[in-house]
Amino acid sequence: MVCRECGAEVGPEHVDGAKRLARCPGCGAFIRVSRERLKLMEGTGGVVTRVTPPSCPLCEDRGFLLLELQKDDHRYTYVFKCVCERGREEKRAWPQLPARLAAHLLEKRSKEIDLGDVPGF
Ligand SMILES: [Zn+2]
Ligand SMILES: [Zn+2]
User: Fold this and answer.
1) Domain ranges across the chain
2) By Cβ atoms counted within 10 A, which residue in 40, 53, 73, 116 is the most buried?
3) Average pLDDT over residues 45-54
């Protein structure tokens, strides 16, 4: 199947059969897989039954994270490269998540952030 988020091809190797959940190899989005589709994919061979949990709680190993912030009447989505290993491998021209903001997000485990730490906001 094709990820509706980024258009990447999601194959059987990206599906966690036990959870009926697929992970897009392109953008990291989770995709719910129906019983019927799972059966079809299992018929082709290799649905994995176990997926290791993400090692980065900030970006869930996507290498980037999105922060939605409202400025006046408008909501903007800011994209940052994560501070983790995947983020360092990210080649796209996004700003690096400021270390202070990363620490803050990790500590608070919430979306409540200090806007002073968001570049350009
Ligand atoms: Zn995707
Ligand atoms: Zn990360």
Assistant:
1) 1-51, 64-117
2) 40
3) 62
How far is ligand 1, taken at its centre, from the CA of residue 42, in Å? 21
Q: How far is the CA of 88 from the centre of ligand 2 (A)?
A: 9
List of residues 6+ apart from 55 with CB closer than 8 A: 61, 84
Q: What is the value of pTM for the model shown? A: 0.52
Whose CA is closest to 77, among 18, 36, 120? 120
Long-range CB contacts for residues 14-18, cutoff 8 Å, separation at least 24: 14/48, 15/41, 15/47, 15/48, 16/48, 16/49, 16/50, 16/51, 17/42, 17/47, 17/48, 17/49, 18/49, 18/50
The one-letter amino acid at 105: L
Q: For residue 72, how far is its CA from the centre of ligand 1 (angstroms)?
A: 31
Of the listed ligands, the closest to the CA of 14 is 1
Taking the centre of ligand 1 as the mean of its atom positions, its distance from the CA of residue 7, in whole angstroms, is 6
